[in-house]
Each structure stands twice: as C-alpha cells, then as structure tokens.
Amino acid sequence: MDTKKLTTLVDLAETQSYSETAERLFLSQSTVSKHIMTLEKEWDVKLFSRAHRQVQLTAAGKKILPAVQQLLRQEKELQTTVAIANANHAQTLVIHGIASIAQYQAFNIITKFTSQYPNVKLKFSEAEVPDLNEDLKRQDVDVIFTRIYEDNDPRYDTIVNETDHYVVLVPKNSPLAQAKQLSIEMIKDQQLLLLRNTITVANPLNEVLKRSLVTPRIVYEGQRIDLILEMLNQGMGVSVVMNKSFDLTGFDNVKAVPLVPEICSRLVFLKRRDRTAPVVNLFWDFAKREIEQAKK
C-alpha cells in the first residue's frame, strides 16, 4: 500500500485544508485531491465531506483514521528496524547547522549517534540561520539544526532541543558591568560587536531596536565569536549574543549581563515531512530519545 497516500489522509484529517496539507507535504493541491480520491475508490468509501470549503472526515473516515495512523507508525518502526539492520552498510546522513552548535546539546547528540552507528557517513556543514532555512528546501539536506523565535512551522517535523536567551557581553572594567540587567536603551551609545545576521527581520531583537528608536553603532559584524570575545577582553565595545553560544574560558575580563526585555529562542532539529529515508528516521528517533532522556 502506498504510504504517501495514507500520510496525505492523516494530514488532511488534521488540517482540514487541502492547501495547508499540500504546503506541509510539499505537494500540489491536485495531488492531495488525487491521493484522497484514489483511496476512496480503492476502499469504496467516502473519507471526507466537502461543503462550503469545509473539509471534514465522514463517519466512516473517523473509524478508518486510527487504523491508518497505526499502520503508519508500524511502517516507520519497520524503516527504523531496516536502518539498524543495515547499519553495517555505508549510509549517508546530511546535517547542516549553526556555527555555535558545539555549545548546545545537539552537538553531543550528533557525536553520540555517529559513535553508535559508525557506518553512517555524516556530512555536516555550518551555515547562518537564513541560509539554513533555504537548505531545508533542498533534496540533498536531511536535517538542519537551527534557531527559531516563533511557533513551529507545520511544514516541518520539529524536535526542540533547548531554549536560549540574549545577554549583553561587556568588559568587566566598564561601568555597564555593574548593572544587574541591561536594555538596548542603556547600550545605545556603545560600540557594538555583532555576529553576522544578528539583526534581521526575523529576529525579535530587530523589533526591539526599532521600538527603542536606536540606530546601533556596529563596529564589527562577522562570524567569529572568538574575535568578539577577544575585543571585549581588551576593553572594546559591547556585544549582544545568545547566552549559550559562547565560552568565556580564557576571557577573564568579559561579563555576561541579562538583556531586558528578555528575548528567547529555541534550538531545534528540523526536517521536511517527506524525508523518510531509513537513516533519517534512525537519527530522528535517536535524537528524540536522547532529549527525552536528558529531561529525566
């Protein structure tokens, strides 16, 4: 049986929208419609009622849905079993992630996975958040590790690793280091050292700057957090970065002060819903288990 059609059925039952299901599953609306009509013809049953642009399961559809959901779960378990059985054969897993991944739990998950499944060939590349969002649309990228500020995108499967929040890094010999918390207004006259793409349309920090009517005095914008820390250590400027994205070991003259109002992000693994290769499912299930275990 074609599990793609079954997946379409389950998703449409959830969204009650042909257009939303098409977007989530990277299909055309006509393909979604064909999947449902094919199942209805094969099973000789009406699965959905369509009236006034409303799409709802029929009584028969409601009875069939749990069995379809169970079948898809079993199919996924089978794929994982196949992946484990094939672990002695070379398989490739492509993951792209943010440059600061080593500071987060995701790094340990990936390294532990490669240790447990040594015959899985990992291809990892780092990229900035806007580029990662584009990478996810490509067929040759399986999973990305990125930072998000809004609700989960329903088009993608999501595993939330952990949360993080912005802090202001200041030299300890600066008067700002005495503050218990700092606002954008309080650092508006300071030289600002930023990681590239810190201030983007998608970043809530950009909105805070707009509301504060602050035009930042950016004197450095790049990819090297170590260079920012060294400049701060020498008494130059301030920086606004995520609290877990750096390590102050060796930078004794740098202090992290909470930014107010607090701006939080979530660190997540994302994959397209149509990425169901056995090795991808193997990693996905492994990551979920590791995160659940870490919560205990």
Question: Overview of this structure, please?
Answer:
The protein has 296 residues and is α/β, with parallel strands linked by helices. The chain has three domains: 1-84, Arc Repressor Mutant, subunit A (Orthogonal Bundle), CATH 1.10.10; 90-160 and 264-293, Periplasmic binding protein-like II (D-Maltodextrin-Binding Protein, domain 2); 163-263, Periplasmic binding protein-like II (D-Maltodextrin-Binding Protein, domain 2, 3-Layer(aba) Sandwich), CATH 3.40.190.10. It contains nine helices and eleven strands. The strands form two sheets. Strands 3, 4, 5, 6, 7, 8, 9, 10 and 11 form a nine-stranded mixed β-sheet that branches. Strand 7 (191-195), helix 7 (204-211) and strand 8 (217-222) form a beta-alpha-beta unit. Helix 1 packs across helix 4 (59-85).
Determine the CATH superfamily of the largest domain.
Periplasmic binding protein-like II
**Structural class estimated from helices and strands:** alpha/beta
Anisotropy-based shape: elongated
CATH class of the largest domain: Alpha Beta
Compute the CA-based radius of gyration: 24 Å
The CATH topology of the largest domain is what?
Answer: D-Maltodextrin-Binding Protein, domain 2
Overall pLDDT metric: 89
> Helical element count?
9
- Counting structural domains, the number is 3
CATH architecture type of the largest domain: 3-Layer(aba) Sandwich
Beta content: 25-35%
Number of DSSP strand runs: 11
**CA-to-CA gap between the ends?**
39 Å
H and E string: HHHEEHEHEHEEEHEHEEEH
Unreliable stretches (pLDDT < 50, length at least 5) are none
Largest sheet: 9 strands, mixed
Q: Percentage of helical residues?
A: 25-40%
